[in-house]
Amino acid sequence: MPRLLSRLAVAGTAVALAVGLITPTTAQAAARPATRAGALQWAALGDSYTAGMIEATGDLTEPRDGCARTTGSYPELIRRDLGSLVSLRDVSCSGATGKNVYATAQSPIGRPLPPLGTDPDAPYPPVPPQIDAVGPATDLITVGVGGNDLDFGGLLKSCIELGATAFGQGTPCKDKYDAELPDRFNRLRADYDRMLTALHMKAPFARVLTVGYPHLMPEDTDLCRYGDLLQFSTFTTGDLAWARDAVLRPLNAVIARDAAAHGDTFVDLYPATAGHSVCDADHWLDGVLTSVLPLKYALVHPNAKGQANAAALVEDAALGG
Q: Phi/psi of residue 43, each to 5°?
């Protein structure tokens, strides 16, 4: 019996699970309609770290709308374990920002594939704001965004280019972008707060889990081999430490603080993925590439092990473990 199903058998029925997931305030409890039988209504929102995107996390799911959701993403792994006990609406989308969750449509770009580097089925029509998948009957919301609000992917790309120009020396990326970070984080905090406020207004009885980001860079950045496309390519070791300490850790801290301010649960992926960064031997995230032959892009994303770890932690948080 799958891990989740064995735990649910102990817990009882899907109704018992629904009751356990929802912890309303006193006022909400008085206003909440009677708990209904049937599948738990779950909306999975987020960016590419939720959607899966890369080939290392499986095939694309249907319909193929350009958001690059994969069969090995953590929402899909949990859904398969829960089976009929849950009704999942996974509208996570690669490239999504907080605003794409609560307010604005998104034009997805699909999954980049060789030899041209772009999705052969692109361009795709816009997809609606992810909050459209949420409603008064929603029991559980998981949301994993924030990196694109900081343009973290753009920073990684620029750091690789600057590291090549600097021949692997110094901190050229830090030198260029460090002064911009306060403004980027101010915008992130404002949009993350607006997003959670909007989700609670749309689904007042839902439990919300905010999902953070894993340990991309190791504590010892000397583990990363300069020029290795399976790792961070031409990122300098100094810039890797800067990106870890000045961008990634503060990003998780913003998500955790906003979750606490709204009474939500923060699912912290960072501690469990220590020792499993892109540059570690047992890596749960792939670097620029998953493999050279055949050529498979990863663009610094969780692989199958990373998604399985996220699934386990999100499961535990959802079930109150």
A: -110, 120
Backbone angles phi, psi at 209, to 5 degrees: -110, 120
**Interatomic CA distance for residues 256 and 65, integer angstroms:** 31
Beta bridge partners of 234: none
- Alpha-carbon distance values, 235 to 91, 169, 184, 243 (Å): 32, 9, 21, 10
Please say whether the beta carbons of 231 and 300 come within 8 A. no
- In the structure encoding, which two tokens stand for residue 149, read together? 């609000």
Q: Distance (Å, rounded) from C-alpha 260 to C-alpha 281?
A: 34
Question: Nearest 5 degrees, angle CA 39-CA 45-CA 49?
Answer: 120
Amino acid code (one letter) for 85: L
Q: Which residues contact 166 (CB under 8 A, 6 or more apart)?
A: 172, 236
DSSP secondary structure code for residue 38 in this structure: S
In contact, 232 and 244? CB cutoff 8 Å: no
Give the single-character DSSP code of 61: P
Asked if residues 90 and 45 have their Cβ atoms less than 8 Å apart, the reply is no
pTM value?
A: 0.90
Between CA 51 and CA 73 the distance in angstroms is 6
β 289-291/296-297 pair status:
antiparallel
Q: What is the Cβ-side half-sphere exposure of residue 232, based on CA atoms within 13 angstroms? A: 34
Mean pLDDT by 10 residues, the chain (321 residues): 40 36 40 58 98 97 95 98 93 98 97 81 95 97 98 97 98 98 98 98 98 98 98 98 98 98 98 98 98 94 98 92 49
Q: Give the CATH number of domain 3-18+37-150+184-220+249-285+301-318; options: 3.40.50.360, 3.40.50.11720, 3.60.21.10, 3.40.50.1110.
A: 3.40.50.1110
Q: What is the 3-state secondary structure (H, E, C) of 223-271?
A: HCCCCECCCCECCCHHHHHHHHHHHHHHHHHHHHHHHHHCCCEEECCCH
Contact 232, 197 (CB under 8 A): no
Residue count of the chain, please give it: 321
